[in-house]
């Protein structure tokens, strides 16, 4: 139990420090224009990485499982201009069905 | 915003169930969710540490998974308010979904929106954790319901909006996807996301040409 508490406190402090680092370092300054162009593209970069790792990454391996089916269904729904809530709901239904009958 | 907070609550339940089943008791998982509010890192810590194994690998795993908050925090920094302490505090509102939704294009962020989106998410993450540790046996395995697909599917909807803006975003997404796919099998979790951030450096090329 001691190991758990040590880990909780250290991880919490480090997480807070990581989140605080940028805001303290940059302060209220405008970022230079060259940085601005990078920041603008950071959003699609991070989102892509989150989609890929959370869909296909499992215990350090690449897998195509029921979750990938759900995300694929959401992708099709979005391509057909479905609203966000519908696309995500369809993904959940598809994944649940695949797990139940797969 | 409400569906997103509810989804976070469901993941909180999932975390509470896992932590309790891993021998963490009831208090420790709740304290962890209150202090860290970082889903991916918390899941990793529980799976690496189990009932009290190796502390250092668990901490390293969490730090790698949270390292993405460094560039994300720098991105949002110019739009926060107050002195260093207040800025550090506001920076705690950087969580994936809020940060991405608060993006207003061209590298601008909506501070009020981000904080406003994070508060209900963190609240329900904590409530979910409490439900998970107390009623884990009753709730059962939420994974069977397909709810773990909510976050990748939701990030995909945000990504599609970014890509519809066109320009370099599509090239950046392709590079980021390739990097993440290549690195997942060969690096610890967290590294693929950080490496994918480098795809945003393409922005430099656009400016110089």
Distance between the amino and carboxyl termini of chain B: 39 Å
Number of domains of chain B: 2
Biggest β-sheet of chain B: count, sense, barrel?
none
Nearest-integer average pLDDT of chain A:
94
Succession of helices and strands of chain A: HHEEHH
Helix content of chain A: over 70%
Estimated share of beta-strand residues of chain A:
under 5%
Overall shape of chain A: it is flat
Number of strands of chain A: 2
Rg from Cα of chain A: 19 Å
Choose one word for the global shape of chain B.
globular
| Percent range for β-strand residues of chain B | under 5%
Strand arrangement across the biggest beta sheet of chain A: 1-2
Number of strands of chain B: 0
Q: Kindly report the greatest chain-chain contact and the residue count on each side.
A: A-B, 78 and 97 residues
Number of helices of chain A: 4
User: How many separate structural domains of chain A?
Assistant: 2
**Residue ranges of chain B: pLDDT <50 for 5 or more in a row?**
none
Average pLDDT metric of chain B: 91
What does this structure look like?
Chain A is built from four helices and two strands. Chain A has helices at 2-26, 33-56, 66-79, 84-101; strands spanning 57-58, 61-62. Chain A has a two-stranded antiparallel ribbon. The longest helix of chain B is centred in the middle third of the chain and has 29 residues, at 111-139. Chain B contains twelve helices and no strands. In chain B, helix 3 runs antiparallel to helix 4 (55-66) and helix 10 packs antiparallel against helix 11. Chain B starts with a helix and ends with a helix. Chain B folds into two domains: 2-148, no CATH class; 166-209, no CATH class. The chains are: A mainly alpha (102), B mainly alpha (209). At the A-B interface, helix 1, helix 2, strand 2, helix 3 and helix 4 of A face helix 2, helix 3, helix 4, helix 5 and helix 6 of B.
């Amino acid at each position: 139990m001691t190991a758990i508490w040590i880990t909780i406190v250290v991880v919490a402090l480090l997480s807070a420090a990581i989140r605080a680092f940028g805001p303290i370092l940059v302060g209220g300054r405008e970022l230079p224009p060259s940085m601005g162009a990078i920041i603008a593209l950071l959003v699609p970069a991070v989102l892509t990485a989150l989609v890929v790792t959370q869909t296909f990454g499992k215990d350090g391996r690449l897998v195509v499982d029921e979750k990938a089916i759900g995300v694929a269904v959401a992708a099709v729904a979005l391509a057909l201009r479905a609203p966000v809530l519908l696309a995500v709901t369809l993904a959940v239904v598809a994944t649940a069905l695949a797990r139940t009958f797969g | 915003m409400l569906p997103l907070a509810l989804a976070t609550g469901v993941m909180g339940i999932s975390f509470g169930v896992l932590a309790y089943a891993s021998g963490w008791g009831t208090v420790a998982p709740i304290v962890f969710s209150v202090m860290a509010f970082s889903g991916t890192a918390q899941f990793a810590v529980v799976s690496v540490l189990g009932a009290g194994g190796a502390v250092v690998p668990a901490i390293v795993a969490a730090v790698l998974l949270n390292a993405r908050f460094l560039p994300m925090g720098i991105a949002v920094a110019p739009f926060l308010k107050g002195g260093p302490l207040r800025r550090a505090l506001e920076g705690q509102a950087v969580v994936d979904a809020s940060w991405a939704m608060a993006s207003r294009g061209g590298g601008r962020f909506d501070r009020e929106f981000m904080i406003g989106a994070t508060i209900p998410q963190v609240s329900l993450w904590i409530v979910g954790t409490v439900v998970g540790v107390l009623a884990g046996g009753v709730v059962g395995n939420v994974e069977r319901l397909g709810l773990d697909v909510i976050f990748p599917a939701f990030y995909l909807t945000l990504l599609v909006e970014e890509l519809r803006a066109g320009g370099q975003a599509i090239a950046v997404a392709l590079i980021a996807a390739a990097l993440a796919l290549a690195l997942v099998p060969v690096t610890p979790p967290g590294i693929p996301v950080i490496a994918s951030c480098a795809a945003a450096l393409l922005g430099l090329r656009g400016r110089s040409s």
